[in-house]
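Sequence only, no structure available. Ideas?
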Amino acid sequence: MEDRLLVTASPHIRDHSTTRGLMGNVVIALLPAVLASALIFGARALLLVVVTTFACVAFEYIYERLLHKTNTVGDLSAVVTGIILALNMPVGMPLWIAVVGAFVAIVITKQLFGGLGYNFANPALVGRIVLFLGFTSRMTAYVYPDMAVDALASATPLAVADKTSLSLLDMFLGLHGGMMGEVCVLAILLGFAYLVATKTIQATIPVTIVATVFVLTALNTGSPYTALIECMSGGLLFGSVFMATDYVTSPFTTKGKLFYGVFIGLITFLIRHFGSMNEGMSYAILLGNLMTPWFNAWGHQ
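Reply:
I predicted one. Tokens follow.
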């Protein structure tokens, strides 16, 4: 029997990238969203980011010290989780609830499953979902900017029946209510451009998710304008760029990324248009995370 060379989809070429370096790039990419949230919603946005980030780092440090594990705080992954988690909250979120979310993200979702590289889903994502289920009224208590247009004075864009009445410029600049990190499209796109330029992520997953939602929404509503508004609304862009692209919980083959992106876009569309809630991005990413082993397998065929 002749020898066979078995090639898998795992990386075979090493470079000088480190976890700290990659996470540092994500932190930099998140800064425009942090700054935008502070400009739009006020200084309390910065306070929420600081508290949540500090809590995530503290929980990771304390857990690893108690269990005599190697300290990994320096890899900045807990910092990234803290910032993303904060940006997935409304600015009026009580700080103690934000700390609960940090505990769920770091201790339950990340550390109890073995730490970085072993979590089954994005830690910040799970923290957000738990907070939404446990503190629904707080997670939907949106603060609206003083400069917001009248159409958005009492509803987030996804809750507005006639989306053709909404301004693309207001959506682009974030002049409406919602979670802190999801409102300003400009800030998200700046972060996305930086991540792609530094080769921290590939554009495949975000582009596939957004394209899937756009096409399905345009076909369902008959309005490309409505589809564009929906792509700029809710957590679609922020989740596509900063959460769905998590290294641990997303596929690593090109075909796998395409399957994954289409799946998340499809589930988001179905929940938004046929479910009982306006937003479905978080649940779609969670399901995509759980399906990642199969997407990797299909992508390798």
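Residues 19-41 form the longest helix (23 residues).
Hope that gets you unstuck.
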